Backbone:
């Protein structure tokens, strides 16, 4: 089974936990052991400053010797590719000012991905905050905090360009995790697999991000600094704060299960259920993407995500509609409007414009008699 299919299938049971291993760091052996003991769902291997191919292959071999979880490359450059992995996040750094990290490295790496037989997972990578290694190396244009609409615009653009994965990053070892309001904005605009990482160090933070709509939570620095018991508590909180998406999501892959004969999602009673409104059209140039979000009281032991300042989270009965350019009418309606316009023109008498006074006098003289011919002027020679 393809890695993408495995991730989507596993997502039915709740948000997935990704262990990020950076072979360039001295703490990577400890991070691998912590990830194996705490039970992550998949591994991301790579980093922004990786320059040693041998350390990359060694980390993957150590993971494979103890786990059958998918190993996905997380390359910071072309040298972060190896045939020993299962797949690669084929990343475009969306908010980089350097074209190399938007498309240049991808052009150089694509032949290697094909040669190595890696499964490419098209991923839009959005680094929200500055001050991290990736923001410095990738020349990131930092997004201002408290502006979830900007995150939604980036997410929408990534989805329209065919990037089925979206990775929101606060930065390795970030002081604060990605705001749940920004996660919710990205979730409303992107129908694919949403990953969130950076600064997740507490059960409350993990549960809030998961409840806001993340499909996968990425842990890197936490694996290097925390004990497996504490990590398991955080992972359990993330699983309990899960949010399910009903069938018919814009990604085209059903991620909710329906009860036999009911036609309703199995989680219809979940107060954190996100549903797509079936009454809105899904075709045409003015394609609508509307989400109706029901956020009731959290389950016992769950954590309601904090409401960010200046942003109102959706409540019961609220609907969010993201509408593109207005759809043009059908050919039949356009023809009817054109015929009605022509009929109105026929009903209005068209008055002929009056001649200017000088032109009218000239016409009057011409009508009184035959027009006199002017004698030809003879051309003289010499």
Residues:
């Amino acid at each position: 089974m393809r890695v993408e299919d495995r991730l989507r299938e596993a997502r039915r049971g709740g948000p997935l936990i990704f262990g990020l291993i950076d072979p360039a760091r001295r703490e990577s052996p400890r991070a691998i052991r912590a990830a194996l003991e705490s039970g992550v769902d998949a591994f991301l291997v790579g980093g922004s400053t990786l320059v040693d191919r041998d350390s990359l292959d060694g980390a993957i071999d150590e993971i494979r010797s103890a786990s059958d979880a998918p190993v996905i490359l997380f390359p910071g450059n072309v040298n972060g590719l190896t045939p020993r992995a299962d797949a690669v996040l084929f990343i475009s750094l969306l908010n980089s000012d350097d074209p190399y990290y938007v498309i240049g490295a991808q052009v150089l790496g694509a032949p290697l991905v094909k040669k190595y037989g890696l499964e490419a997972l098209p991923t839009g990578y959005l680094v929200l905050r500055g001050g991290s290694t990736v923001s410095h190396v990738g020349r990131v244009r930092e997004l201002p905090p408290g502006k979830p609409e900007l995150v939604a615009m980036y997410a929408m653009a990534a989805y329209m360009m065919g990037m089925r994965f979206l990775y929101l990053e606060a930065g390795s070892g970030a002081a604060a995790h990605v705001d749940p309001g920004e996660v919710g904005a990205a979730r409303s605009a992107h129908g694919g697999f949403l990953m969130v990482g950076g600064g997740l160090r507490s059960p409350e933070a993990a549960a809030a991000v998961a409840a806001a709509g993340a499909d996968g939570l990425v842990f890197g620095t936490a694996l290097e600094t925390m004990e497996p018991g504490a990590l398991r508590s955080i992972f359990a909180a993330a699983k309990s704060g899960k949010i399910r998406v009903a069938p018919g999501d814009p990604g085209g892959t059903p991620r909710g299960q329906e009860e036999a004969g009911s036609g309703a999602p199995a989680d219809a009673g979940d107060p954190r259920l996100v549903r797509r409104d079936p009454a809105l059209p899904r075709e045409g140039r003015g394609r609508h993407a509307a989400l109706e979000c029901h956020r009731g009281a959290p389950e016992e032991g769950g954590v309601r995500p904090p409401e960010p300042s200046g942003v109102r989270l959706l409540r019961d009965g609220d609907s969010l509609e993201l509408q593109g350019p207005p759809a043009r009418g059908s050919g039949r309606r356009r023809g009817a409007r054109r015929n009605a316009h022509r009929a109105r023109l026929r009903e209005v008498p068209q008055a002929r414009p009056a001649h200017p006074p000088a032109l009218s006098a000239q016409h009057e003289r011409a009508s009184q008699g035959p027009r006199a011919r002017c004698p030809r002027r003879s051309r003289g020679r010499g």
The chain has a mean pLDDT of 77. Residues 3-240 form a domain with the TIM Barrel fold (CATH 3.20.20.390). The first helix runs from residue 3 to 11.
